[in-house]
Design a protein that fits this description.
CATH topology: Rossmann fold
Helix content: 40-55%
CATH architecture: 3-Layer(aba) Sandwich
Strand order of the largest sheet: 4-3-5-6
Order of helices and strands: EHEHHEHEHHEHEHH
Radius of gyration: 16 Å
Largest sheet: 4 strands, parallel
Strand content: 15-25%
CATH class: Alpha Beta
Number of strands: 6
């Protein structure tokens, strides 16, 4: 195998119970980018970003902010949410998206409470949730949850639903690559990574 020089470093802060994010990021990152592994409502994401940037001297983002940026980039106004967690966890996400200017037309949850259990669930469950969450009046379906193996089913869902489907890890990867200003088109994970990266 030919040597590929690593020109960018991508840092990821995630809980130790998350077993999905690191493998999904590693599979999709361009070969020139190395991966380094390392919820309070509107405004907290910006505060967290500032703390990370101040501590590291590097640009940073959060998954919640990345969803807002991606939906804005795609011109989406109305969303359906398919989330793996419980109804209790769902309310802050719905509130955050609505306070960020999006109309939530439907929210569907699976009911997982422990992140470690969620990491053991296969992508077919994410696919089924995406189908159940969709509504005709939604411009896009979003699938939050970093320990939810949904990236691999995004392309299939977009083809079948005829609209953007944004999985947590794909959106986070997209936002991070935009921050470090690298990454050509990444096929196989939906239109966001395929069509909306810096060239």
């Amino acid at each position: 195998m030919a040597y590929v020089k690593k020109t960018h470093r991508f840092g990821l802060l995630t809980p130790s119970s998350n077993t999905v994010q690191e493998p999904e990021f590693s599979a999709a990152l361009p070969p020139t980018v190395s991966l380094h592994t390392l919820a309070k409502g509107k405004g907290y994401d910006r505060e967290l970003i500032k703390r990370m940037q101040d501590a590291s001297g590097r640009p940073a983002t959060t998954a919640a902010t990345a969803f807002v940026d991606a939906l804005t980039r795609l011109g989406v106004e109305r969303i359906a949410i398919g989330a793996p967690w419980s109804k209790t966890m769902d309310k802050p996400m719905v509130d955050f998206m609505q306070m960020s200017g999006f109309k939530v037309v439907h929210s569907e949850v699976v009911g997982f409470v422990a992140s470690i259990e969620l990491g053991r669930v296969g992508p077919e469950s994410a696919y089924e949730l995406g189908r159940r969450a969709d509504r005709p009046d939604a411009d896009a379906v979003i699938m939050p949850g970093g320990n939810w193996p949904a990236m691999s089913v995004v392309e299939r869902l977009e083809r079948e639903l005829g609209k953007p489907v944004l999985a947590n890890n794909a959106v986070s990867l997209w936002a991070g690559l935009r921050l470090i200003k690298t990454g050509d088109s990444i096929p196989g994970y939906g239109r966001l990574l395929r069509d909306h990266l810096p060239h």
